Structures
1.
Amino acid sequence: MSDDFELLDAWRGGDLQAGSKLFDRHFESIHRFLRNKVGDDTDEVMQRTLLACVETRDRFRGASTFRTYLFGVARLELLAHYRRRRKLNNELDIESKSFFDLDPSPSTVVAKHNEQKLLHEALRRLPIDLQIALELHYWENMSATEVATVLEIPSGTVKSRLRRAKEMLREIMESITLSKTQLESTMGDLDGWAKQLGETLREGAAVSRMTAKDDNDDEPPSGAAAAT
C-alpha cells in the first residue's frame, strides 16, 4: 500500500485516482472530527475541507504528516464555517467559546451508552481548541507535536492543555448530570469511554461514506476530481 506522500506526489503529478485514494484513506477520521462539531452541516464543511486541500496542496512541504495537515485544514474550515454562520468579521474566541455556545441545538450523534452520551455532551461544552485537543489525543492518537501543529500552538503547551481540558470536562459533567454513579463511571474510565465514543462516531462516518458513494454512482466522495 502506498504511503500518503507517495499518493500526494502522484496526485501532484496529475494522477487523480491517487488523490481520491488519499482523501478516501482519511475520510472517516475527518468526517468524525467535523460531525461532532457541525452536525447536519458536516458534508458541506467536509467538501470545503477537501477543496481547500486541492487548492493548497502545492504549498504543503511535508514538514508534518499529510494527516496532520489535513486536520489543520479541517479545523480552519470549521472555524470559517462558524464565522460565516454568525456573520463574524474577526476571529472566534476559541479560548472561551465552545461549539455548544455556537450551536446549542441537540446533537445528531446517537450514543450507545449513557456514559458516551454524557461525555459527548460535555465535550461540546469545552472551549473549542480544548475539545479539539482531547479528540485528537483520544481518537487519532496524535502526539503532542502533531496536536500542536493542528492547533498552531507551541508543542510544549499541549500537555498542560490536555490536563486542563480533563479538569474542565469533569466540572462540566458534574454540572449537567444528576447521577454521581454515571459521572464516576465516565471519569473512572475516561480513556475507554472516549475511545468507544470515537468508534461510534467513526461508524457513522463509514455509513455516510457508503451513502455518498451510492449517491454518486460509486465515485469516491472527495475533492480530488477538481484538481485538474
Note: Residues 217-228 have pLDDT under 50 and may be disordered.
2.
Amino acid sequence: MSDVQNMSSRRWGAMLCVSLLAVANLAHAQFEFPDSFGGIGSSLSESKDPVSVSAEFVASKADQPAILFVTAEIGEGFHVYALDQGALPDGGGGPLPATINISAPKDVRLLGEWKPVVPPETHIDEEIWKGLQIREHAKTVTWFAPIELAKGVDPSTLEIVGKVVGQACNPQTCVPFNEDFQAKIGVGVTLPAGVQFTAAEGTEVTIPQSSPTVPSTGQSTEKLFSQQLGTAAPLVVESTTQDSFPHLLVLAFLGGLVLNVMPCVLPVIGLKVFAFIEQAGQSRWKIFALNLWYAIGVISVFMLLAVLSIVFRLGWGQLFQYPEFNIAMAAVIFAMGLSFMGIWEIPIPGFIGTSKVTEIGQKEGYEGAFAKGTITTLLATPCTGPFMGTALVGVLSRSPWQIMTIFFTIGLGMASPYILIGAFPQLIRFLPKPGEWMNTFKQLMGFVLIGTVVYLLTLLKPHFVVPTVAFLFGIWLVCWWIGRVPLTAPSSRRWNALGEGIAFGTMIGLVSFYWLAPILEQRQMRDAHILADAKFEQLLSEGTGEYSVRQEPWQPYSEKKLQWLLEHGKTVVIDFTADWCPTCKFMEKTVLKTKEMEAVFRDNDIYTLVADWTHQDSSPEVNQKLQDLGTQQIPLLAIYSAQNPTKPILIPGTYTIAGLTEQIRRAGPSLGGETKQGMANAAPGFGAVPSSGAGLR
C-alpha cells in the first residue's frame, strides 16, 4: 500500500475512534458511570456533607502500643449514633450505629475495640423507639483504638486507610454517610490517664498513667458484632502475606504465561497465529520487531491496569463491571469480526484486511501488532489462572512501585512466548504454509469474534442488552458504508462516506441509549416490583417466613444475613463471584456446587451465601466486604467459622474439592442449639419474618 493510502487509513482510524468515543460518552451519561472515571455520573447533592472525617495515629512506645485516632466533624444541628448504640429487644429496631473499619494496609492490625474520647450523650427515647437508650455524639467526636504495626514497617511513611459508616440525623431527616479516611503519623489527642483495652485475643493492653488514655465511664461497652467482623485480621489460606516479593514476581510471571491458554484469550489468539504465518519468509529483524511491538501492546495494558489499581483501587478484572467498557469492547470486537468476514477493511495498517490473503501486498505492520496485543490483553482480564490468584491477593495494599512491578511482570509473562518466537523465528516453520486455506480460517475467526461479542453482552444488565445490540447494528451499517468506498476513490468521496457513517452511528447511539434503554429499564423495574410483591405476600401468608436453607442454598449475600447467621452459631461460606469471571464459574461448576461439596455442606450444617460482584453500582456491600478482607480479587471464598467468627479463612484463586473440604473441617460445623434459618433464605430486600419474636438488630 502506498504512503498516501497509509496516511489516509490512519486518518480513517482516528476518525472512527472519535466516533466510537463520542457514542460511548453518550452511553456514559445514560449509565451514570462513576465519577472516578471522569464521566458525567449522577450528582447526589450539591449540599455540604453533614459529616467529615479525619484521622491520624501515634507510634508505639516502650510502655504502650500505637494508637489510631479517627475524628468526625458533625454539622450544626446533626448528631451521629455511638458505636455501641443498642436496639430494642425482640426485633423492635433502633438507630443505625456508626462503624469504623480499616481496609489497608495489611501491615496494620487492630488490637482492641474502638472507644470515644468523650462518652456519648444519652437519653431515653419516647417517640420512635420508646424506652430505648439513645447514645449519640454532636459537633465533634474522636474515637481511638490500639493498633499493632508489622515488624519492619516505618511509621513515618505509613498511611492507614479506612472508613466510617453511619447516619447523621437532625429533627427533620437522617442522612447516611460513608466517609473514607487516610491516617498518617501525628501527635494524637491528649487523653486522661488510666484505662485498659480489651484486645481482640482476649488479653488486656494497659495504657500507663502518663500516656494518652480514655477516661473510665463506669459503664460497660459492648462491642458490636459488626465491628468484630470488620476489624479482626482474617486468616488467609495460600495468601501472599508470608511470601517474599521476589517469590510473588515469579508467581506473577507464571500467571501471565498461563493466561495465553485461558478461555478468555482463545477467541483472539488466532489473530497472532495468523500473523505468525504471514511473517514466514520475512527478515529475522522484521519478525523480531513485529513480535516486540505485540509484546509492548500486551505490557502497556498491564501498566494501564496498574495505574488504575493505584489511582482508583480497581482490582483484577474489575473493568468488566463497567457497562461502558463492555460496550466499547463489544463494539471493537464486532468491528474486527465484520472485517474478518469481508464486510470492510479495518483502517489500521497491517491489521489483516479484507483482501484475499494471497493478494495482500503488505504484511503485518507495527501498528497492527500493537493493536492486537492490547486487544488480546484486555480480553484476558476476566480470567485468573494458576499462580495469579496468589500473586494478586492484597496487591492493592502494596506500595505503588510494587504494584507496577507485579503487573509489569504478569504482562512480561504473557508476552514472553511471542518475544521468544521473535528471537528464534525458525520456530514458525512448524506452522502451515500460507495459502488459500487462510481465507477460510480468517472467516471462521470472524464468527469466533462475533461469539465473543455475545459473551460480552451477557455481562450487561438486562435492560442494556437490546440497546447495545441496536448500537452494534449501527456499527455494522457504518462499517459497510465506509467499506463500500474503495481506497482508490477520490479523498472527498472517502471523507463523505466517513462523515455519513459517523452521523448515522451517532444517531443510532442516541436512540439506543437515550430512548430505548430507559424504556426497558422501566419495564425491568416494574417486573421486579411485581415479583417482589408476590414473594412478600407469600411470606406473610405462610406466617413464619422461615424456609429451609437446604432447599435454597447460595442465597444472595448481605452483611445483615452474615451477622445474623454468625450470631446464631452458624458456619458460613461466602462465594465472591462475578458473571465476567470465567474462572469463578469454572470453580463453581467443578468444585463448589458439586454433589461432593453439597454433601460436605449438609453434613456440617454449613450455610452458603453468594456475593455477586458483577456490577459495580449494584454491589456496594460486596465492595466493602472485599475491602474489609484486604483484597480486590476474585475468585475468593471466605469461610466464617462458628467457633471463631472474627477470623475468616480466605481461599483466593483456584482450589480443589479435597482442599476446600479440608478447610471446611478446619473451620468446623455450625454450633448446636436453636436453628434460625429464615434470614438466610428470605427474599432479598425483605428479610425473614421471625416466628418467635427474634430478628435482626
Note: The chain has four domains: 1-40+461-541, 51-212+222-230, 243-436, 555-681.
3.
Amino acid sequence: VAKGLFMHNCILDTLAFFLESTQTVPSDVRSRKHPRTALALATVAVESAFKHWSTGYYALPESKPLQNFSATLWRFATNEVLESVDKLSPRRWEKIQEAASEYIGAHKPTPRKDAVCAQKGLVSGRATCFEADTD
C-alpha cells in the first residue's frame, strides 16, 4: 500500500489516466519533465469528487455552474497544490509514478483508433486523405 503525499489510491488512479493517454506520444516529442500539472489536477479533481460525498451521500450543488470542474471554481486550489507539487523530490516523483502506473489499464478502456495507430507506427486515414488533381 502506497503511503505519503499524493499517494492516495484515488489520486494515483486519476493520474494513471493521464499517464496512460500519453504512452502513445512519440518519445521525441514527449516531455521529459514530471507531469506536475497532471498531478495537481488529479489531486484537485479527487478533492472535488470527495466534496460531493461530504454528507455521506452523493449530492451535487443545485446551481448548475457549481457542479462543473472548472477553472473558475478550482484554479485557486490547483495553484495551491502546484506549490506543493513543485517541492517534490525526484525520489518522491519516482514513487508516485511507479504507484500510479499500477492503475494503468485498470478500467480496461476501449483503445481509441488514434492510439492504436500510434502504437503500431501507422497513420490514420486523416493523414492520408487526398484527391489526385485530374485537371
Note: Helices lie at 9-22, 36-52, 71-85, 90-101, 113-120.
